[in-house]
Amino acid sequence: MYAALITGKETVELREFPDPTPAPAGVVVDIAYCGICGTDIHAYQSGKDYNPAICGHEWSGTVSAIGNEVKTVAEGDRVVVSIASACGSCSACRQGQAGYCQQAFLSAVGRDSLAPIHGGFAPRIAVAASRVERTDSGLTDEQAAQVEPATVAFHAVRTSHLRLGDTAVIQGGGPIGLSTMQWVRAAGAGKVIVIEPNAQRRELAIELGAHHAVEPGNEADAVIKEHTHGLGADIVYECVGRGFAVQSAVDLARRGGAMCLVGLPNEEAPISVGTWLVKEVRTTSSLAYVREEFEMAMGMIADGRVQVEPMHSSTVGLDGFEAALADLASGTSTQVKVLVDPNL
Known about the structure:
This protein is α/β, with parallel strands linked by helices. It has two domains: 199 residues, Medium-chain alcohol dehydrogenases, catalytic domain (Quinone Oxidoreductase, Chain A, domain 1), CATH 3.90.180.10; 126 residues, 3-Layer(aba) Sandwich (Rossmann fold), CATH 3.40.50.720. Helices cover 30% and strands 24% of the residues. The strands form three sheets. Strands 3, 4, 5, 6, 7, 14 and 15 form a seven-stranded mixed sheet that branches. A six-stranded parallel sheet has the order 10-9-8-11-12-13, sandwiched between helices. Helix 1 packs across helix 12 and helix 5 crosses helix 11.
């Protein structure tokens, strides 16, 4: 069996692995689709060490084997990858901070005891049973493969300072930005503005519910001022994942407003501390999610309140993975969400 791994700067390798078998507390899943994430793109661009376990961490599939200790799923169940539930026994859990469970966090970053030796860009994968959730029957496999990144955005909005009626700005019209925009609408924002340089992504933002979708720079500044009486946005979600965009998010917020960091830059972010202080901007940051949020988000996607299928722009096989990465990393791609079907 072959799995695709990012092994260096602009380098992808198809490496051979033995067919996986489940650990006593594990399962084997036959992968249907695996989404290409922004962290995969950053790893491809930077060449920094990239944990093989998370090279492909947005997948859906069907359970094909279970360990003898597994009671939560059965062979033949359609499942989607998630974060593990809080363990209840680590230091964070014992202090009433289950949302910061150390064991769940290790599962999110591929450092748990049953972390796989490769990610989901493969026909099959062996993982802890605690990492999989039964797929809502209302979802296709393509939709299910997009639940994980949509839940990342759900967590960001749920833990931010958004209030009913707020004017919210989303920087970035990629999969995370477009998901964030939809959750912001669902949470009751009054006006939603997406800032995105790519015209096709701006069109998609409008289709998915943004009130305005504008280019960065003077146009964005003018539209935000127009709809906030010149004050600035009540809250800005930074979903670009580039260092320069962090300060931009604060610049677009009003005094006393808020900023939420969602995108994960792979470089340092230069900031103007004076602006942060003068504006008294409240800041939250968001990484991954908790298990209960995964179930909530999947249900809201299944009932149509948030749409992921319009973001799915193309599907490639393992042999097209590197070309898809290069295109997404170019900065000029017209793609939004690329799914990998390892069975093509």
